[in-house]
Amino acid sequence: MTSARYARHLLLPEVGAAGQRRLAASRVVVMGAGGLGAPVLSYLAAAGVGELTLVDDDTVDLTNLQRQVLFATDDIGRPKAEVAAERLAALNPDVRLSPRRERITEESVAGLVAGADLVVDGTDNFATRYLVNDACVLAGVPLVWASILRFDAQVAVWWAGHGPCYRCVFPRPPEAGQVPSCAEGGVLGALAGTVGAVQATEALKLLMDVGDPLVGRLLVHDALRQTWDAVPVRRDPGCAVCGDAPTIRAPRTEQVTCTVAVDDVPTVSAQEVSALLRDDAVRVVDVRGEAERSIAAIAGSEAVPLEAFRDGSAFALLADDERPLVLVCKSGGRSAEAVRLLLAGTGRAARSLDGGVLAWARDVDPAVPTY
Ligand SMILES: [Zn+2]
Question: For 114-151, b where at least 16 C-beta lie within 10 A, e where not — what string?
């Protein structure tokens, strides 16, 4: 450990040589090397955390580069864990890096968390968050968690024995289709930097045991209004994993996927819709908003946003036409919801374009951009 590298830390009475030694002796596991993982990993490596395990089974995609600042354009197609480890090794050769290119599953998560002083969750889906939470509760390890969507973020430290866990506050995942993923809803790139830096700060504080950790408080950030609120959150004695009579003895995932939601909805393939459109024998209605339609849309489709199906105003718009109806969104989740709402509201059957605009771009019109 070269002291010049950490000179600005050594000047801080709260850190000093003792704090820096604690960091060097620490092992942190970071789940996800994406938008949140990039700042988290960068600052933890720069700070001289002794060992960093980074877990990500994904490869770098062009759409990642708007916020995942560890990666460059030339990295597209390469494994994120591998590229991130290269960048971090160049940043600080003191750090022992363990890139793990693997999925976080019920089987793997306990092994990934074992031996960690602290875990940072930078993943972007509910199924993984529950898994990581359960593994951390069962191992007694603090979990620095965050979630970002559009201009909104939440951050907390979940730590059983010291405060609530994720399941205490969010006992069940939202219904499928209720909360869009970043891929559907979008996210401001810089928000990942803001929030990942807060996670890194909390991680360093916990490792050095300084300050008041974000335990028992849910930090809620609105970047549009530039507000931060700390909402008190409590342990739930009835929590399934950290409560007084826990029922979860091993990490358990909670399924929230679009495929669950679309199972019962009739679908139609992109090729079939293409043939029907040529004969003007179908009405194609896009349920996405204007922002998404401006990126990629099916020629000849019209726009009726999902909100209009939810409030019922879409039904009259669609009543004046006898042609069969096909509803479209990005990948098929929201159009399936619209099909269900239309049937419930009017009794009229429609079909959902299987795979959405992405399938259209793949199977019918490669000139349509994917996003
Ligand atoms: Zn709990």
Answer: eebbbbbbbbbbbbbbbbbbbbbbbbebbbbbbbbbeb
Question: Ligand 1 mean position to 158 CA, how many Å?
Answer: 8
Chain centroid offset of residue 68 CA: 13
CA of 296 to the centre of ligand 1 (A): 42
Residue 170 Cα to ligand 1 middle (Å): 9
Q: For the chain, how many residues are written?
A: 371
User: For this structure, is 182 an active site residue?
Assistant: yes
User: Can you give the pLDDT at residue 182?
Assistant: 62
From the candidates 168, 182, 239, 242, give the one annotated as an active-site residue: 182
Find the Cα–Cα–Cα–Cα dihedral 270, 271, 272, 276, rounded to 10°. Answer: 100
Mean pLDDT confidence for 165-178: 79
Give the pLDDT score at 175.
64
pLDDT of 125 reads 86
Query: Looking at this predicted complex, what is its ipTM?
Result: 1.00
Query: What residues have CB less than 8 Å from 216, skipping those under 6 apart?
Result: 162, 163, 164, 232, 233, 234
Topology match between the domains 7-256 and 260-363: no
Which CATH number does the domain 7-256 belong to among 3.40.50.720, 3.40.50.970, 3.40.50.2000, 3.40.50.300? 3.40.50.720
Helix, strand, coil abundance in the chain, percent, nearest 5 = 40, 20, 45
Q: Which two tokens stand for residue 24?
A: 């060097």
258 is catalytic: no
Dist CA 178 CA 180 (whole Å): 7
For domain 260-363, the CATH class is alpha beta
Average pLDDT over residues 304-313: 93
Cα 287 to ligand 1 centre (Å) = 37
The confidence score (pLDDT) of residue 2 equals: 66
Residues 133 and 241 sit within 8 Å (Cβ to Cβ):
yes
